[in-house]
Amino acid sequence: MITKKEVQHIASLARIGATEDELESFSQDLSNILEWIDQLKEVDIDGVEPTAHIIGRKNIVREDKDYEFPNKKEIINLFPESKDEYNKVRSVL
Amino acid sequence: MIRELHEKIINGKITSVQLTEKYFQTIEKKDKDIIAYLTLIKEGALSQAQRVDEKVKKGEKIGLLAGIPGAIKDVICMKGVKTTAASKILDNYIAPYNATVITKLNKQEAVILGKTNLDEFAMGSSTENSFYGATKNPYDLERVPGGSSGGSAAAVASDEAVWSLGSDTGGSIRQPASFCGVVGLKPTYGRVSRYGLLAMASSFDQIGPITKTVEDSAIILSAIAGSNTMDATSSPDFSKQYENYLTGGVKGLKIGVVKEYFEGLNPEVRKKIEKVIEDYKKMGAEIQEIELPYAKYSLATYYIIQPCETSSNLARFDGIKYGLRMDDKEKTQLENISNLPKTLLETYLDTRQYGLGQEVKRRIMLGTYALSSGYYDAYYLRAQKVRTLIKKDFEKAFQKVDLILTPTTPTPAFKLGEKSHDPLEMYLADIFTITANIAGLPAISVPAGKIKVEDKKMPIGFQLMGKWFDEENLLKVAHAWETRKNN
Questions:
Q1: A2 to chain B: which residues are within 8 Å by CB?
Q2: Which residue in chain A has the smallest CA separation from B324?
Q3: pLDDT tens-digit profile of B250-285?
Q4: Do the beta carbons of residue B443 and residue B435 sit within 8 Å?
Q5: The pTM is what?
Protein backbone atom coordinates (compact mmCIF):
# COMPACT_ATOMS: atom_id res chain seq x y z
CA MET A 1 0.00 0.00 0.00
CA ILE A 2 1.36 3.38 -1.02
CA THR A 3 0.17 5.99 1.46
CA LYS A 4 -0.94 9.48 0.56
CA LYS A 5 2.17 10.79 2.25
CA GLU A 6 4.40 8.62 0.07
CA VAL A 7 2.54 9.76 -3.03
CA GLN A 8 3.11 13.37 -1.99
CA HIS A 9 6.83 12.63 -1.73
CA ILE A 10 6.91 10.91 -5.15
CA ALA A 11 4.96 13.75 -6.71
CA SER A 12 7.43 16.28 -5.40
CA LEU A 13 10.36 14.22 -6.71
CA ALA A 14 8.61 14.09 -10.09
CA ARG A 15 7.85 17.84 -9.93
CA ILE A 16 4.12 17.28 -10.31
CA GLY A 17 1.74 19.38 -8.27
CA ALA A 18 -1.32 17.54 -6.99
CA THR A 19 -4.52 18.28 -5.10
CA GLU A 20 -5.63 16.25 -2.10
CA ASP A 21 -8.12 14.37 -4.28
CA GLU A 22 -5.45 13.56 -6.85
CA LEU A 23 -3.10 12.29 -4.15
CA GLU A 24 -5.89 10.05 -2.92
CA SER A 25 -6.61 8.57 -6.34
CA PHE A 26 -2.92 8.14 -7.21
CA SER A 27 -2.40 6.33 -3.92
CA GLN A 28 -5.19 3.90 -4.87
CA ASP A 29 -3.99 3.40 -8.45
CA LEU A 30 -0.31 3.01 -7.62
CA SER A 31 -1.10 0.56 -4.84
CA ASN A 32 -3.20 -1.60 -7.18
CA ILE A 33 -0.61 -1.56 -9.93
CA LEU A 34 2.29 -2.36 -7.58
CA GLU A 35 0.34 -5.17 -5.98
CA TRP A 36 -0.21 -6.66 -9.44
CA ILE A 37 3.47 -6.19 -10.31
CA ASP A 38 4.42 -8.18 -7.20
CA GLN A 39 4.01 -11.32 -9.34
CA LEU A 40 7.59 -10.66 -10.47
CA LYS A 41 8.72 -11.67 -6.98
CA GLU A 42 7.96 -15.32 -7.74
CA VAL A 43 10.55 -15.39 -10.54
CA ASP A 44 13.92 -16.88 -9.60
CA ILE A 45 16.41 -14.31 -10.87
CA ASP A 46 19.48 -15.74 -9.16
CA GLY A 47 22.52 -15.28 -11.37
CA VAL A 48 20.54 -13.65 -14.18
CA GLU A 49 22.13 -10.63 -15.86
CA PRO A 50 19.90 -7.58 -16.32
CA THR A 51 18.99 -6.44 -19.85
CA ALA A 52 18.95 -2.71 -20.43
CA HIS A 53 19.33 -2.76 -24.17
CA ILE A 54 17.79 -5.60 -26.08
CA ILE A 55 19.83 -5.76 -29.24
CA GLY A 56 23.07 -5.27 -27.34
CA ARG A 57 25.13 -4.10 -30.26
CA LYS A 58 27.58 -1.27 -30.49
CA ASN A 59 26.33 2.27 -30.23
CA ILE A 60 25.98 4.20 -33.44
CA VAL A 61 28.22 7.23 -33.10
CA ARG A 62 28.88 10.37 -35.07
CA GLU A 63 31.79 12.75 -35.00
CA ASP A 64 31.68 14.94 -31.90
CA LYS A 65 31.70 18.19 -33.77
CA ASP A 66 29.71 21.33 -33.17
CA TYR A 67 27.60 22.81 -35.91
CA GLU A 68 25.27 25.73 -36.27
CA PHE A 69 21.66 24.63 -35.82
CA PRO A 70 19.86 26.00 -38.87
CA ASN A 71 16.61 26.96 -37.14
CA LYS A 72 17.76 28.88 -34.10
CA LYS A 73 15.00 31.42 -34.49
CA GLU A 74 12.33 28.76 -34.41
CA ILE A 75 13.71 27.42 -31.14
CA ILE A 76 13.76 30.90 -29.63
CA ASN A 77 10.17 31.39 -30.78
CA LEU A 78 9.21 28.37 -28.69
CA PHE A 79 10.42 29.96 -25.43
CA PRO A 80 7.38 30.59 -23.24
CA GLU A 81 8.83 33.97 -22.30
CA SER A 82 11.87 35.62 -23.84
CA LYS A 83 13.92 38.77 -23.67
CA ASP A 84 16.10 39.52 -26.68
CA GLU A 85 17.39 36.08 -27.55
CA TYR A 86 17.24 34.80 -23.99
CA ASN A 87 14.75 32.47 -22.37
CA LYS A 88 13.27 34.23 -19.35
CA VAL A 89 12.58 32.09 -16.29
CA ARG A 90 11.53 32.73 -12.72
CA SER A 91 14.06 33.12 -9.96
CA VAL A 92 15.50 29.90 -8.66
CA LEU A 93 15.12 30.88 -5.03
CA MET B 1 -2.78 -0.54 -52.90
CA ILE B 2 0.27 1.77 -53.16
CA ARG B 3 1.55 -0.10 -56.21
CA GLU B 4 -1.80 0.25 -58.04
CA LEU B 5 -2.00 3.96 -57.23
CA HIS B 6 1.60 4.35 -58.38
CA GLU B 7 0.74 2.69 -61.71
CA LYS B 8 -2.23 5.02 -62.14
CA ILE B 9 -0.07 8.07 -61.45
CA ILE B 10 2.69 7.12 -63.90
CA ASN B 11 0.16 6.10 -66.54
CA GLY B 12 -1.62 9.43 -66.27
CA LYS B 13 -4.91 7.89 -65.09
CA ILE B 14 -4.88 10.10 -62.01
CA THR B 15 -2.60 12.90 -60.83
CA SER B 16 -1.17 13.04 -57.35
CA VAL B 17 -2.98 16.35 -56.83
CA GLN B 18 -6.32 14.72 -57.71
CA LEU B 19 -5.54 11.81 -55.43
CA THR B 20 -4.52 14.11 -52.58
CA GLU B 21 -7.64 16.24 -53.01
CA LYS B 22 -9.80 13.13 -52.99
CA TYR B 23 -8.34 12.14 -49.63
CA PHE B 24 -8.89 15.62 -48.20
CA GLN B 25 -12.53 15.38 -49.34
CA THR B 26 -12.94 12.06 -47.54
CA ILE B 27 -11.38 13.58 -44.44
CA GLU B 28 -13.77 16.52 -44.67
CA LYS B 29 -16.70 14.14 -44.91
CA LYS B 30 -15.79 11.52 -42.33
CA ASP B 31 -13.42 13.00 -39.82
CA LYS B 32 -16.01 15.01 -37.89
CA ASP B 33 -17.21 11.66 -36.56
CA ILE B 34 -13.98 9.69 -36.46
CA ILE B 35 -11.54 12.40 -35.30
CA ALA B 36 -8.48 10.63 -36.68
CA TYR B 37 -6.64 13.88 -37.43
CA LEU B 38 -5.39 16.63 -35.16
CA THR B 39 -3.75 18.79 -37.83
CA LEU B 40 -4.15 18.90 -41.60
CA ILE B 41 -1.26 20.06 -43.80
CA LYS B 42 -3.19 20.99 -46.94
CA GLU B 43 -0.75 23.42 -48.48
CA GLY B 44 2.32 21.28 -47.93
CA ALA B 45 0.56 18.13 -49.14
CA LEU B 46 -0.71 19.72 -52.34
CA SER B 47 2.60 21.34 -53.22
CA GLN B 48 4.38 18.01 -52.77
CA ALA B 49 1.73 16.37 -54.97
CA GLN B 50 2.24 19.08 -57.57
CA ARG B 51 6.01 18.51 -57.66
CA VAL B 52 5.41 14.82 -58.29
CA ASP B 53 2.90 15.56 -61.06
CA GLU B 54 5.39 17.85 -62.78
CA LYS B 55 8.00 15.10 -62.71
CA VAL B 56 5.54 12.66 -64.23
CA LYS B 57 4.61 15.17 -66.91
CA LYS B 58 8.27 15.60 -67.82
CA GLY B 59 8.58 11.83 -68.07
CA GLU B 60 10.95 11.59 -65.09
CA LYS B 61 11.06 8.39 -63.08
CA ILE B 62 9.33 8.47 -59.69
CA GLY B 63 9.50 6.07 -56.74
CA LEU B 64 6.68 3.79 -55.59
CA LEU B 65 5.71 6.10 -52.76
CA ALA B 66 5.97 9.39 -54.66
CA GLY B 67 2.73 11.31 -54.62
CA ILE B 68 0.91 8.78 -52.40
CA PRO B 69 -0.88 10.47 -49.48
CA GLY B 70 -0.37 9.30 -45.91
CA ALA B 71 -0.60 10.46 -42.30
CA ILE B 72 1.83 10.77 -39.39
CA LYS B 73 1.13 10.06 -35.73
CA ASP B 74 1.38 13.35 -33.89
CA VAL B 75 4.27 12.17 -31.76
CA ILE B 76 6.72 12.42 -34.67
CA CYS B 77 8.34 15.80 -35.35
CA MET B 78 7.66 17.50 -38.66
CA LYS B 79 9.41 20.80 -39.20
CA GLY B 80 7.13 23.83 -39.07
CA VAL B 81 4.10 21.72 -38.09
CA LYS B 82 2.42 21.45 -34.71
CA THR B 83 3.57 18.32 -32.89
CA THR B 84 1.47 17.91 -29.76
CA ALA B 85 1.73 14.29 -28.60
CA ALA B 86 -2.00 14.94 -27.91
CA SER B 87 -0.93 16.69 -24.72
CA LYS B 88 -1.95 20.06 -23.37
CA ILE B 89 1.67 20.64 -22.42
CA LEU B 90 2.66 20.68 -26.13
CA ASP B 91 -0.49 22.31 -27.49
CA ASN B 92 1.54 25.20 -28.94
CA TYR B 93 4.70 23.27 -29.91
CA ILE B 94 5.86 23.69 -33.49
CA ALA B 95 8.67 21.28 -34.27
CA PRO B 96 11.83 23.08 -35.41
CA TYR B 97 13.25 19.97 -37.11
CA ASN B 98 12.23 16.83 -38.98
CA ALA B 99 12.34 13.34 -37.54
CA THR B 100 14.57 11.03 -39.60
CA VAL B 101 11.49 9.14 -40.86
CA ILE B 102 10.04 12.42 -42.18
CA THR B 103 13.30 13.31 -43.95
CA LYS B 104 13.26 9.85 -45.52
CA LEU B 105 9.60 10.12 -46.58
CA ASN B 106 10.29 13.55 -48.07
CA LYS B 107 13.12 12.05 -50.05
CA GLN B 108 10.64 9.50 -51.41
CA GLU B 109 8.34 12.42 -52.28
CA ALA B 110 5.48 10.94 -50.26
CA VAL B 111 2.55 13.28 -49.62
CA ILE B 112 1.78 13.95 -45.95
CA LEU B 113 -1.85 14.90 -45.32
CA GLY B 114 -1.66 15.59 -41.62
CA LYS B 115 -0.93 14.52 -38.07
CA THR B 116 -3.07 11.93 -36.35
CA ASN B 117 -4.57 11.56 -32.89
CA LEU B 118 -3.13 9.34 -30.15
CA ASP B 119 -3.25 8.67 -26.45
CA GLU B 120 -1.29 11.45 -24.76
CA PHE B 121 2.43 10.79 -25.25
CA ALA B 122 1.44 7.39 -26.70
CA MET B 123 0.32 6.12 -23.27
CA GLY B 124 -2.86 4.14 -23.61
CA SER B 125 -4.65 1.46 -25.59
CA SER B 126 -7.78 3.31 -26.75
CA THR B 127 -6.84 6.87 -27.86
CA GLU B 128 -9.21 8.06 -25.12
CA ASN B 129 -6.30 9.68 -23.30
CA SER B 130 -5.94 12.39 -25.96
CA PHE B 131 -6.20 15.99 -24.75
CA TYR B 132 -8.22 16.66 -27.92
CA GLY B 133 -10.84 13.94 -27.41
CA ALA B 134 -11.10 10.30 -28.41
CA THR B 135 -10.83 8.91 -31.94
CA LYS B 136 -13.71 6.58 -32.87
CA ASN B 137 -13.54 3.17 -34.49
CA PRO B 138 -14.65 3.44 -38.15
CA TYR B 139 -16.52 0.11 -37.83
CA ASP B 140 -18.56 1.30 -34.86
CA LEU B 141 -18.43 4.88 -33.65
CA GLU B 142 -19.32 3.76 -30.13
CA ARG B 143 -16.13 1.74 -29.91
CA VAL B 144 -12.47 2.69 -29.52
CA PRO B 145 -10.01 2.39 -32.40
CA GLY B 146 -7.40 1.01 -30.01
CA GLY B 147 -4.25 2.88 -29.16
CA SER B 148 -2.08 4.56 -28.81
CA SER B 149 -1.83 4.99 -32.61
CA GLY B 150 -5.65 5.03 -32.86
CA GLY B 151 -5.76 8.04 -35.19
CA SER B 152 -3.26 6.47 -37.59
CA ALA B 153 -5.19 3.16 -37.70
CA ALA B 154 -8.61 4.81 -38.03
CA ALA B 155 -7.34 7.11 -40.81
CA VAL B 156 -6.21 4.17 -42.96
CA ALA B 157 -9.30 2.08 -42.13
CA SER B 158 -11.69 4.88 -43.14
CA ASP B 159 -9.81 5.77 -46.37
CA GLU B 160 -8.65 9.08 -44.92
CA ALA B 161 -5.06 8.08 -45.78
CA VAL B 162 -3.43 5.40 -47.94
CA TRP B 163 -0.80 4.70 -45.30
CA SER B 164 0.23 6.07 -41.94
CA LEU B 165 3.01 5.93 -39.42
CA GLY B 166 2.46 4.93 -35.83
CA SER B 167 4.78 4.20 -32.94
CA ASP B 168 4.76 1.01 -30.90
CA THR B 169 6.06 0.76 -27.34
CA GLY B 170 3.86 -2.07 -26.03
CA GLY B 171 1.50 -2.74 -28.94
CA SER B 172 0.52 0.77 -30.01
CA ILE B 173 0.70 -0.03 -33.75
CA ARG B 174 -0.54 -3.64 -33.73
CA GLN B 175 -3.41 -3.36 -31.23
CA PRO B 176 -5.20 -0.50 -33.08
CA ALA B 177 -4.45 -2.24 -36.40
CA SER B 178 -6.28 -5.30 -35.06
CA PHE B 179 -9.23 -3.20 -33.82
CA CYS B 180 -9.53 -1.27 -37.11
CA GLY B 181 -8.97 -4.14 -39.55
CA VAL B 182 -5.69 -2.92 -41.03
CA VAL B 183 -2.08 -4.13 -41.17
CA GLY B 184 0.29 -2.85 -38.46
CA LEU B 185 4.01 -3.55 -38.31
CA LYS B 186 6.39 -3.00 -35.42
CA PRO B 187 9.91 -3.42 -36.82
CA THR B 188 12.80 -4.92 -34.85
CA TYR B 189 14.06 -2.52 -32.20
CA GLY B 190 16.75 -0.48 -33.97
CA ARG B 191 15.46 -1.05 -37.50
CA VAL B 192 13.96 2.45 -37.79
CA SER B 193 15.58 5.59 -36.38
CA ARG B 194 13.82 7.07 -33.35
CA TYR B 195 15.28 10.53 -33.94
CA GLY B 196 12.43 13.01 -33.81
CA LEU B 197 10.01 10.57 -32.16
CA LEU B 198 8.96 12.03 -28.82
CA ALA B 199 10.45 9.46 -26.49
CA MET B 200 8.21 7.46 -24.18
CA ALA B 201 10.22 4.35 -23.24
CA SER B 202 13.45 4.48 -25.21
CA SER B 203 14.35 0.80 -24.96
CA PHE B 204 10.95 -0.24 -26.42
CA ASP B 205 9.84 2.55 -28.82
CA GLN B 206 9.79 1.81 -32.55
CA ILE B 207 8.15 3.64 -35.45
CA GLY B 208 6.30 1.52 -38.00
CA PRO B 209 3.70 1.56 -40.77
CA ILE B 210 -0.07 1.07 -40.66
CA THR B 211 -1.50 0.14 -44.07
CA LYS B 212 -4.28 -1.70 -45.87
CA THR B 213 -2.05 -4.49 -47.19
CA VAL B 214 1.14 -6.33 -46.26
CA GLU B 215 2.83 -5.17 -49.46
CA ASP B 216 2.12 -1.54 -48.54
CA SER B 217 3.62 -2.22 -45.13
CA ALA B 218 6.78 -3.51 -46.83
CA ILE B 219 6.95 -0.45 -49.11
CA ILE B 220 6.69 1.98 -46.19
CA LEU B 221 9.23 0.02 -44.13
CA SER B 222 11.72 0.17 -47.02
CA ALA B 223 11.27 3.93 -47.08
CA ILE B 224 11.81 4.58 -43.37
CA ALA B 225 14.29 1.87 -42.26
CA GLY B 226 18.04 2.18 -41.96
CA SER B 227 20.96 3.08 -39.78
CA ASN B 228 21.10 6.68 -38.62
CA THR B 229 23.79 8.57 -36.70
CA MET B 230 21.10 10.62 -34.94
CA ASP B 231 19.88 7.52 -33.06
CA ALA B 232 22.59 5.77 -31.05
CA THR B 233 20.56 2.55 -30.93
CA SER B 234 19.71 2.35 -34.62
CA SER B 235 20.99 -0.84 -36.15
CA PRO B 236 23.93 -0.84 -38.56
CA ASP B 237 22.29 -3.78 -40.35
CA PHE B 238 21.43 -2.97 -43.92
CA SER B 239 17.75 -2.49 -44.49
CA LYS B 240 16.26 -3.88 -47.67
CA GLN B 241 13.67 -3.27 -50.33
CA TYR B 242 11.20 -5.40 -48.41
CA GLU B 243 8.54 -5.35 -51.13
CA ASN B 244 10.90 -7.49 -53.24
CA TYR B 245 10.87 -10.33 -50.69
CA LEU B 246 7.18 -11.15 -50.77
CA THR B 247 7.31 -14.00 -53.27
CA GLY B 248 7.50 -17.68 -52.51
CA GLY B 249 5.36 -19.91 -50.35
CA VAL B 250 5.55 -20.95 -46.74
CA LYS B 251 6.15 -24.63 -47.47
CA GLY B 252 8.41 -26.19 -44.86
CA LEU B 253 8.46 -23.05 -42.72
CA LYS B 254 7.97 -23.72 -39.02
CA ILE B 255 5.42 -21.60 -37.22
CA GLY B 256 5.23 -21.78 -33.45
CA VAL B 257 2.04 -21.44 -31.42
CA VAL B 258 1.73 -21.02 -27.66
CA LYS B 259 -1.00 -23.22 -26.20
CA GLU B 260 -1.67 -21.07 -23.13
CA TYR B 261 -2.49 -18.07 -25.32
CA PHE B 262 -5.67 -19.82 -26.45
CA GLU B 263 -6.91 -20.70 -23.00
CA GLY B 264 -9.68 -18.39 -21.86
CA LEU B 265 -9.56 -16.49 -25.14
CA ASN B 266 -12.78 -14.97 -26.51
CA PRO B 267 -14.25 -17.99 -28.41
CA GLU B 268 -14.99 -15.98 -31.57
CA VAL B 269 -11.44 -14.62 -31.65
CA ARG B 270 -10.13 -18.10 -31.00
CA LYS B 271 -12.07 -19.48 -33.96
CA LYS B 272 -10.60 -16.86 -36.28
CA ILE B 273 -7.03 -17.45 -35.15
CA GLU B 274 -7.40 -21.22 -35.37
CA LYS B 275 -8.68 -20.80 -38.89
CA VAL B 276 -5.53 -18.85 -39.81
CA ILE B 277 -3.41 -21.64 -38.33
CA GLU B 278 -5.36 -24.19 -40.39
CA ASP B 279 -4.77 -22.11 -43.52
CA TYR B 280 -1.04 -22.04 -42.90
CA LYS B 281 -1.05 -25.81 -42.45
CA LYS B 282 -2.85 -26.21 -45.77
CA MET B 283 -0.30 -23.94 -47.38
CA GLY B 284 2.44 -26.30 -46.27
CA ALA B 285 3.77 -24.66 -43.12
CA GLU B 286 4.57 -26.83 -40.15
CA ILE B 287 2.80 -25.80 -36.95
CA GLN B 288 4.70 -26.52 -33.75
CA GLU B 289 3.69 -25.97 -30.18
CA ILE B 290 6.26 -23.94 -28.29
CA GLU B 291 6.70 -22.85 -24.72
CA LEU B 292 7.47 -19.36 -23.51
CA PRO B 293 7.45 -19.96 -19.75
CA TYR B 294 8.45 -16.40 -18.80
CA ALA B 295 6.25 -14.58 -21.34
CA LYS B 296 3.42 -14.38 -18.80
CA TYR B 297 5.55 -11.91 -16.83
CA SER B 298 5.85 -9.56 -19.81
CA LEU B 299 3.09 -7.14 -18.81
CA ALA B 300 4.35 -6.76 -15.24
CA THR B 301 7.93 -6.39 -16.47
CA TYR B 302 6.79 -3.77 -18.95
CA TYR B 303 4.90 -1.79 -16.32
CA ILE B 304 8.10 -1.35 -14.33
CA ILE B 305 10.61 -0.64 -17.09
CA GLN B 306 8.31 1.52 -19.21
CA PRO B 307 7.26 3.92 -16.41
CA CYS B 308 10.89 4.16 -15.24
CA GLU B 309 12.07 5.20 -18.71
CA THR B 310 9.03 7.45 -19.09
CA SER B 311 9.64 9.27 -15.82
CA SER B 312 13.12 10.12 -17.06
CA ASN B 313 12.14 10.99 -20.66
CA LEU B 314 9.24 13.22 -19.69
CA ALA B 315 11.25 15.23 -17.18
CA ARG B 316 12.04 17.58 -20.09
CA PHE B 317 8.46 18.87 -20.19
CA ASP B 318 8.84 21.39 -17.42
CA GLY B 319 7.52 24.67 -18.81
CA ILE B 320 10.98 26.12 -19.34
CA LYS B 321 12.18 25.64 -22.91
CA TYR B 322 8.96 25.21 -24.89
CA GLY B 323 5.33 24.21 -24.57
CA LEU B 324 2.98 25.26 -21.81
CA ARG B 325 4.36 27.34 -18.96
CA MET B 326 1.90 27.65 -16.16
CA ASP B 327 2.65 31.19 -15.14
CA ASP B 328 1.20 33.07 -17.99
CA LYS B 329 -1.16 35.45 -16.28
CA GLU B 330 -4.23 34.64 -18.29
CA LYS B 331 -3.85 30.91 -17.90
CA THR B 332 -3.23 31.37 -14.23
CA GLN B 333 -6.51 33.13 -13.83
CA LEU B 334 -8.26 30.55 -15.95
CA GLU B 335 -7.14 27.74 -13.70
CA ASN B 336 -7.63 29.86 -10.61
CA ILE B 337 -4.11 29.57 -9.22
CA SER B 338 -3.01 32.33 -6.91
CA ASN B 339 0.23 33.94 -5.86
CA LEU B 340 2.05 35.39 -8.83
CA PRO B 341 4.95 35.70 -9.35
CA LYS B 342 6.06 32.14 -8.92
CA THR B 343 9.35 30.59 -8.06
CA LEU B 344 10.97 28.21 -10.52
CA LEU B 345 9.85 25.20 -8.47
CA GLU B 346 6.24 26.37 -8.56
CA THR B 347 6.51 26.78 -12.32
CA TYR B 348 7.53 23.13 -12.59
CA LEU B 349 4.84 21.85 -10.24
CA ASP B 350 2.00 23.84 -11.80
CA THR B 351 3.04 23.28 -15.40
CA ARG B 352 3.22 19.52 -14.96
CA GLN B 353 0.08 19.34 -12.82
CA TYR B 354 -2.07 21.18 -15.38
CA GLY B 355 -0.20 20.29 -18.57
CA LEU B 356 -0.10 16.50 -18.23
CA GLY B 357 -3.06 14.10 -18.19
CA GLN B 358 -3.92 11.50 -15.54
CA GLU B 359 -2.40 8.44 -17.22
CA VAL B 360 0.84 10.24 -18.04
CA LYS B 361 1.16 11.46 -14.46
CA ARG B 362 0.33 8.00 -13.14
CA ARG B 363 3.18 6.46 -15.13
CA ILE B 364 5.67 9.19 -14.26
CA MET B 365 4.86 8.68 -10.58
CA LEU B 366 5.08 4.90 -10.85
CA GLY B 367 8.49 5.20 -12.52
CA THR B 368 9.70 7.78 -10.04
CA TYR B 369 8.67 5.48 -7.19
CA ALA B 370 10.31 2.38 -8.72
CA LEU B 371 13.56 4.27 -9.30
CA SER B 372 13.59 6.03 -5.95
CA SER B 373 16.17 5.24 -3.34
CA GLY B 374 15.61 1.86 -1.68
CA TYR B 375 13.28 0.46 -4.38
CA TYR B 376 15.61 0.24 -7.37
CA ASP B 377 16.71 -3.36 -6.80
CA ALA B 378 13.24 -4.61 -5.93
CA TYR B 379 11.58 -3.18 -9.02
CA TYR B 380 13.75 -1.86 -11.86
CA LEU B 381 16.69 -4.24 -11.53
CA ARG B 382 14.41 -7.23 -10.99
CA ALA B 383 12.34 -6.31 -14.05
CA GLN B 384 15.48 -6.00 -16.17
CA LYS B 385 16.50 -9.50 -15.09
CA VAL B 386 13.10 -10.93 -15.93
CA ARG B 387 13.49 -9.18 -19.29
CA THR B 388 16.62 -11.27 -19.87
CA LEU B 389 14.65 -14.45 -19.12
CA ILE B 390 11.90 -13.45 -21.56
CA LYS B 391 14.47 -12.75 -24.25
CA LYS B 392 16.01 -16.19 -23.65
CA ASP B 393 12.55 -17.76 -24.04
CA PHE B 394 12.46 -16.38 -27.57
CA GLU B 395 16.06 -17.32 -28.37
CA LYS B 396 15.17 -20.87 -27.45
CA ALA B 397 11.88 -20.82 -29.37
CA PHE B 398 13.56 -19.50 -32.51
CA GLN B 399 15.94 -22.43 -32.52
CA LYS B 400 12.88 -24.57 -33.19
CA VAL B 401 10.61 -22.34 -35.28
CA ASP B 402 10.92 -19.55 -37.84
CA LEU B 403 7.99 -17.47 -36.65
CA ILE B 404 5.45 -17.36 -33.83
CA LEU B 405 1.72 -16.87 -34.39
CA THR B 406 -0.61 -15.44 -31.74
CA PRO B 407 -3.81 -13.42 -31.52
CA THR B 408 -3.01 -9.68 -31.65
CA THR B 409 -5.62 -8.80 -29.05
CA PRO B 410 -7.70 -10.93 -26.67
CA THR B 411 -10.95 -9.24 -27.84
CA PRO B 412 -12.23 -7.02 -30.65
CA ALA B 413 -12.55 -3.26 -30.02
CA PHE B 414 -14.21 -2.42 -26.71
CA LYS B 415 -16.64 0.42 -26.08
CA LEU B 416 -15.59 3.98 -25.35
CA GLY B 417 -15.42 4.41 -21.60
CA GLU B 418 -15.54 0.67 -20.95
CA LYS B 419 -12.01 0.42 -19.55
CA SER B 420 -10.99 4.03 -18.98
CA HIS B 421 -11.87 3.90 -15.28
CA ASP B 422 -9.45 1.08 -14.55
CA PRO B 423 -5.81 1.45 -15.65
CA LEU B 424 -4.98 -2.22 -14.98
CA GLU B 425 -7.79 -3.47 -17.18
CA MET B 426 -6.63 -1.17 -19.96
CA TYR B 427 -3.06 -2.50 -19.64
CA LEU B 428 -4.33 -6.04 -20.27
CA ALA B 429 -5.41 -5.07 -23.81
CA ASP B 430 -1.71 -5.35 -24.76
CA ILE B 431 -1.12 -8.81 -23.31
CA PHE B 432 -0.15 -10.47 -26.64
CA THR B 433 1.70 -7.55 -28.19
CA ILE B 434 3.89 -6.46 -25.33
CA THR B 435 6.29 -9.43 -25.38
CA ALA B 436 7.64 -8.38 -28.80
CA ASN B 437 8.64 -5.02 -27.31
CA ILE B 438 10.22 -6.62 -24.25
CA ALA B 439 12.31 -8.85 -26.56
CA GLY B 440 12.75 -6.23 -29.32
CA LEU B 441 11.32 -8.55 -31.97
CA PRO B 442 9.63 -7.53 -35.22
CA ALA B 443 5.89 -8.30 -35.21
CA ILE B 444 2.97 -7.67 -37.51
CA SER B 445 -0.80 -7.68 -37.05
CA VAL B 446 -2.80 -8.82 -40.08
CA PRO B 447 -6.63 -8.69 -40.31
CA ALA B 448 -7.97 -12.21 -39.68
CA GLY B 449 -11.58 -11.34 -40.54
CA LYS B 450 -14.56 -9.92 -38.70
CA ILE B 451 -16.65 -11.24 -35.87
CA LYS B 452 -20.14 -10.31 -34.79
CA VAL B 453 -20.25 -8.07 -31.73
CA GLU B 454 -23.77 -7.06 -30.79
CA ASP B 455 -25.23 -5.76 -34.06
CA LYS B 456 -21.90 -4.86 -35.67
CA LYS B 457 -19.16 -6.80 -37.41
CA MET B 458 -15.83 -5.92 -35.85
CA PRO B 459 -12.39 -6.76 -37.25
CA ILE B 460 -9.80 -8.81 -35.38
CA GLY B 461 -6.15 -9.40 -36.19
CA PHE B 462 -3.62 -12.17 -35.82
CA GLN B 463 -0.01 -11.51 -34.97
CA LEU B 464 3.18 -12.96 -36.37
CA MET B 465 6.47 -12.43 -34.55
CA GLY B 466 9.72 -12.96 -36.43
CA LYS B 467 13.37 -13.36 -35.59
CA TRP B 468 15.40 -10.24 -34.84
CA PHE B 469 15.99 -8.21 -38.04
CA ASP B 470 14.14 -10.80 -40.14
CA GLU B 471 11.38 -8.48 -41.39
CA GLU B 472 11.60 -10.00 -44.87
CA ASN B 473 10.42 -13.41 -43.68
CA LEU B 474 7.81 -11.88 -41.40
CA LEU B 475 6.34 -9.87 -44.26
CA LYS B 476 6.61 -12.76 -46.70
CA VAL B 477 4.67 -15.13 -44.46
CA ALA B 478 2.02 -12.50 -43.66
CA HIS B 479 1.71 -11.71 -47.38
CA ALA B 480 1.39 -15.40 -48.28
CA TRP B 481 -1.69 -15.73 -46.05
CA GLU B 482 -3.20 -12.43 -47.18
CA THR B 483 -3.00 -13.49 -50.84
CA ARG B 484 -3.81 -17.19 -50.32
CA LYS B 485 -5.90 -18.90 -52.98
CA ASN B 486 -8.73 -20.32 -50.85
CA ASN B 487 -9.43 -16.81 -49.54
A1: 369
A2: A80
A3: 999 999 999 989 988 999 999 999 999 999 999 999
A4: no
A5: 0.96
